[in-house]
Amino acid sequence: MSKNGQIYRISGPVVTAIGLDAKMYDVVRVGDEGLMGEVIELHGEKAVIQVYEDTSGVRPGEPVTNTGQTLSVQLGPGLLTQIYDGIQRPLPILLEKMGTFITRGVDADGLDQEKKWTFEATAKKGDKVEGGQVIGTVQETETIVHKIMIPPNMNGTIKSIKGGDYTVSETVCVLDDGTEIAMMQRWPVRAPRPYKQKYAPDTPLVTGMRILDFLFPLAKGGAAGIPGPFGSGKTVTQQSLAKYSDAQIVVYIGCGERGNEMTEVLDEFPELIDPNTGKPLMNRTVMIANTSNMPVAAREASVYTGITIAEYFRDMGYDVALMADSTSRWAEAMREISSRLEEMPGEEGYPAYLSSRLAEFYERAGRVETLEGEDGSVTVIGAVSPPGGDISEPVSQGTLRIVKVFWGLDAPLARQRHFPAINWLNSYSLYPQSLDQWFKDNIASDFPEIRTEISGLLQIEAELQEIVQLVGSDALPVDQQLTLEVARMIREYFLQQNAFHDVDCFTGVEQQYLMAKAILTFQSEAKSAIEAGGMLEDVVNVPARSNLMRARFEDNYLNRIEGLVAEMTKEIAAAAEEN
Amino acid sequence: MAGKEYRTITDVKGPLVFLNKTEPVAFGEIVELRLNDGSMKNGQVLDTSDDLVVVQVFEGTAGVDRTTGVKFLGDVFKLPVSKDLIGRILDGAGRPRDGGPEIIAEGKADIIGAAINPYARQSPHDFIQTGISAIDCCTTLVRGQKLPIFSASGLPHNDIALQIARQAKLTASDEEFIVVFCAMGITAEEYNFFRSDLERTGALENAVLFVNLADDPAVERLITPRLALTAAEYLAFEQDYHVLVIYTDVTNYCDALRQIGAAREEVPGRRGYPGYMYTDLAMLYERAGLVKGKKGSITQFPILTMPGDDITHPIPDLSGYITEGQIVISRELHGSGIYPPINVLPSLSRLMGGTIGEETTREDHKSVSDQMYAAYAQGRELRGLVAIVGEDALNERDKQLLAFSGLFEDKFLRQGRYEDRSIDETLDLCWELMSTIETKYLVRLDQQWIDKYHPDNKE
Ligand SMILES: Nc1ncnc2c1ncn2[C@@H]1O[C@H](COP(=O)(O)OP(=O)(O)OP(=O)(O)O)[C@@H](O)[C@H]1O
Ligand SMILES: [Mg+2]
Questions:
Q1: Ligand 1 centroid from CA A230, angstroms
Q2: What is the complex's ipTM, to 2 decimals?
């Protein structure tokens, strides 16, 4: 056995080598073209390798070389605004080296090795430092300061450190044992990065999507699953979150999805302004694009590449949000590799370890005390694409067992063009208890009650609708007809939100609260007006109500709501008097 | 090594041949089999090792035995490409089928096709006018899009595809499309229908046809679309053409995929289709689009028939997860004599939002299509209620919506096979039909467009 072996067998992305001295997860170079692969199984003297590039044309007998490294990413300045494939090769570099199409056998560093960054030392000679400690900073983009940390599992006393312009691989700091520290560090993608301890989440990730923040909030450091059939809005929702949520760093993984969707993000993000900083969104974003037609093994790796980058920024004390679209394609990549390995299949052909891989992945989310003692978080939002939209399948089920937030997209709503097509009856969030304090402190003390009232009305509507299906709505008593009207207002005014509208795309939580209150005001005013003898038809059709509803598409709505509600109240009262 | 003939077949199973004691054979290598009667078959290596090689035989293994000679040709499957492809008819393996000469290659292209670097792509946003109102108004086709037709057996998807091929034009320029047509397991009758229509309209001169018919080898179907898309890529990205690829029937393709999976004793996924079908289909569908720095484009119009009219069947389901929308053909509309029987409700064009509007179609397009869709959806729903409670129980608004849904099908959807409506005609027709509903119920229309386009306000 040696560092060099030879190919024994090739079956699609899975290659078996003999005579190779290898450990699990070693990265190897396969064949005359040196295709990149990773050892995923050892059998006697055979090593089974998943190859990250297309293997057609490769023959038994060609060489295999072990690099001795495990699959890892390069971490340091230069990650932000970049777009990578599943194994952290920058796509712009691949374009330069290969042209329009992704061919193979080309290597590319994750970080630009020539570019000089201005390093400002924050630690000094003689400081005792430990893994995770910040020793300096680099202004990576207009909005983000990249903190240079001592790699985990390393410590010592600083012998020398000096600010100045450096490439990522040049030494910026030397420890007394002679260890040289550069701005770039490497981390094996399959191993979670260490932290001191996990905390319970207590702050919402504000997304600006009304149905999410108000009814089904996600915590910073939490995990959410978005299952839905094709065309129901998973990608639009994920992209909205990437655009408007109040995370400091966004890692967006296009895992086995469409090429054009990544292009869209690339076109849009540099133009779009982050509502939280006033600067282009691209500044805080790292993208990973391993589209459906790119090699499946690299798709399998893409999710790990993404979460490792997310953890790295978390370790600097940032709130990071990671979107994975779609985790089902990742699971399918696992299934494909597993079946090539002739492993014993579990449910629907997925490997038996599917659910533990899903759990391990979502477990890398969390709000933590970093090694340095700062607060940092990784929030994970995974899209799930269940076959036929039926979530009884293994990936959906495996996800739902772990995540605490379930945003269920549904085809009938999408077909009615009710967007976001999130079903309010079966979606849930298990966070309200831990987040309510935040909502009370920051928005309004009765926030939880208002939420309960709104969701209660939606429940009642669902029950009433069943009756309406049978007898028509005119057969209901007036108070129930009013309830239906109120619920319709919740759906059309509050829940529906156009992700592509300049104003409607984002609503702050305070405005969400005021909009919900406006609905409840309408309900109570209309109720009294009807009791005072007003006709339902007149009361609900007052022009001021449609003004209130329509104005949400206009600027400065937050400051206008109160006035518009007062107007509505007046008109409703007047409508009652007319009779 | 190419040239050596082996007679070491150990097993034959379905479309697969297993042999041993070969020199190193490449994964994906092309194979030639010579049977005892002198006839030839072609295949491709699916699995290769020092001990065993698995070959998938495109023409099926009938007549193959242990003495069949197997020759490895030393290369993966390539298509000879040149501009001479235009106007030609080739068989499912890329050989001339029109009696013409061999294609003189300017180059040879690997048919598997590498993925377009997402960073190299350019977002599609040019409107293609198909002249079919339902499509132009409600599920707008965009140059560089992959927009399949979800149909079912016995429905007129071929007529629709041909009508699109005849009428598709870019309103922004007078550039023409080259049609690459790919038949996978369709009947000779269907093929003749396509061919004679293309011939009659002169489109054949500007088309390339790859033809694998129902009685041609099933396994060959796995390469036919790859040949077609390789030709399309060459014409689009090397020769600057705008290419419209029509391929039919994806369902037959998937069935061939299932056959190979079964022969390899792979663990089957849903309904027996292989677990990697999503990836496999993506490797076809994703070969559409525009790329930076190249003038040409590939627009895909795949046709698939939904087994049992079931949209959740793995074939439409996985397709829908990859393509940029779908046009759904309805048996019910077809049954009521409407052509084209497009059910706009489950249909979708994901690229429409970023395309339509003042610069490409018309300023009121979005507003109109939202309102048409909403009114039709509500009208259709009321049909169910009316069946139970009777029309008299409806209020005025609902009565108007109900009536509108009938007009929508009769006047808007229905059109002739040769009727080519411009986008202006389509949108004007929408206004005419919507004006049968009182304006106060047309809540999705912007007031400014009502002022400008509503028949009451015109002239
Ligand atoms: N919030 C929204 N606002 C407006 N339109 C939306 C919204 N969400 C979804 N849509 C519409 O639905 C279409 C499909 O959405 P999207 O691409 O996100 O679906 P998906 O669930 O990701 O599908 P797939 O699984 O096939 O990728 C969009 O092109 C858009 O027209
Ligand atoms: Mg999507």
A1: 8
A2: 0.91
